[in-house]
Write a structure and sequence with these properties.
2 domains; 231 residues; globular; single chain
């Protein structure tokens, strides 16, 4: 990405899982709560980590496919989704954690840029995780997968977030860890940066070399430097 693009940024949107928080242990635990209740085998953390990124319904379908169960069983999927939501709300961040440096970065950006979360996780679950992480008070908007007609990589969630933040799409920086974040931002006309941690680095399409940051401190420094240059 052309660094000059940063001069136009007026707001920042963050992905949640794999970007702000390492919530994979909690997602796996919530998934397993439903699987075990349904009499199925539980998933191990490393396997479940690879299923994260498309929201809970896709997570459940991937889990069922892994265990050789046809995704046409709507009743089972609904049962697993109900158990997943209940377990997440009961313990949103019991086993996971906020990534190192995220809290300092968010506090540094807060008040300089309106901040938002754009995630495929449903808004109530996202707010529960953000609340447990201590990050919810910093967010001007939380845009979950239930607040748009389509999930990332569709541009719809980012376009809706930009409208809610009263900025143009090219003024909204998307910060994420996966190809869904990258493709959604590009389709929406938003600048995008991918983080050097999280779950989705393996999914970036070949031939695409997006702007990366190695740490939250680097992103904070680059954004604040741009603010200083603009006076």
């Amino acid at each position: 990405m052309n660094p000059d693009t940063l001069n136009h940024i007026r707001a920042i949107a963050f992905d949640l899982d794999g970007t702000l928080v390492d919530s994979a242990p909690d997602i796996c635990a919530a998934l397993n709560a439903g699987l075990i209740k349904a009499g199925l085998a539980s998933a191990d953390l490393d396997t479940a980590r690879g299923w994260i990124g498309g929201g809970p319904d896709l997570l459940i379908r991937r889990a069922l496919a892994h265990f050789g169960i046809a995704d046409s069983d709507g009743a089972l999927q609904a049962q697993l989704r109900q158990a997943f939501d209940a377990a997440t709300l009961a313990a949103p961040l019991k086993y996971g954690h906020v990534y190192d440096g995220i809290a300092d970065m968010i506090e540094g950006l807060y008040g300089v840029f309106p901040l938002a979360v754009v995630t495929n996780k449903p808004t109530p679950l996202a707010c529960a995780v953000l609340g447990a992480a201590g990050l919810l008070p910093f967010m001007a908007s939380v845009h979950g997968g239930d607040r748009a007609e389509e999930l990332k990589p569709s541009p719809a969630p980012l376009l809706a977030a930009a409208q809610r933040l009263h900025v143009a799409p090219h003024e909204l920086l998307m910060v994420g860890d996966s190809s869904a974040d990258l493709l959604a931002a590009r389709a929406a006309g938003c600048p995008v940066v991918l983080v050097g941690w999280g779950y989705g680095a393996h999914s970036i399409p070949e031939g695409i070399e997006p702007w990366h940051v190695a740490s939250p401190a680097q992103l904070l420094q680059e954004m604040m430097s741009r603010c200083a240059e603009q006076g």
